[in-house]
Amino acid sequence: LASVLLPVAECGLFQGSSGSEDEARPSTAAAAAAQKREERLRKFRELHMKRNEARKLNHQEVVEEDKRLKLPPNWEAKKARLEWELKVEEKKKECAARGEDYERVKLLEISAEDAERWERKKKRKNPDLGFSDYAAAQLRQYQRLTRQIKPDLEQYERLKEQYGEALYPTSDSLLHGTHVPSKEGVDRMVADLEKQIEKREKYSRRRPYNDDADIDYINERNAKFNKKAERFYGKYTAEIKQNLERGTAV
């Protein structure tokens, strides 16, 4: 009897445990679904916040770009220049408050490598910017000639001892007839003028038009057209042009 009841009891026990597992499965599935839904909602909220942030940043960038477009073209250079000037003024005030010379402090802050680089850059720089007007060309010529002058310091000291304060004229000074140039000074001036004349004679200006060429145009535009036509078709029409000039064209 005991051997018969034991399998029956075991079967009843197994049926009860399977029923509890069936009841736990729906609750576990519902919790997993709720967790997945909550995770999706969280991701959706994050994407929504990122979209709003990107929209805000985009709007700010559009506003800044519109401001930049309305500024003058050289605004960045002007802004950098103004900031540099403000820093220089603040540095000067600090040096003045400490009783120091700003130029000396600035030179102490410059390294030897930077100084050498700036000197090389100054030497490479071409001071002649080309022709702008006759006044600027005359000024460059005057500066070039004055750099070539080698003053006689001994004669200057003798004149300073001889004339004293009269050597430095003012608006009340009478200059006519008070100074007689030396023979060496006159010879030096004559040699310099002859050198300028010789250099001017060697200079040859490129002329845009040939005065000896035949005039076969009515204006500058027509002259350019004729040059192009001659360049492309001149070798084909040379014989026709010669016949027309000789009057032997058929």
From TrEMBL:
Chain residue ranges for the region called Disordered: 15-37
Signal peptide coordinates: none
Location in the cell: Nucleus
A GO cellular component entry from the record: catalytic step 2 spliceosome
Pfam families linked: SYF2
Domain of life the protein comes from: Eukaryota
GO process annotations (BP): mRNA splicing, via spliceosome
Quaternary structure, from the entry: May be part of a spliceosome complex.
Record-stated family: Belongs to the SYF2 family.
Entry protein name: Pre-mRNA-splicing factor SYF2
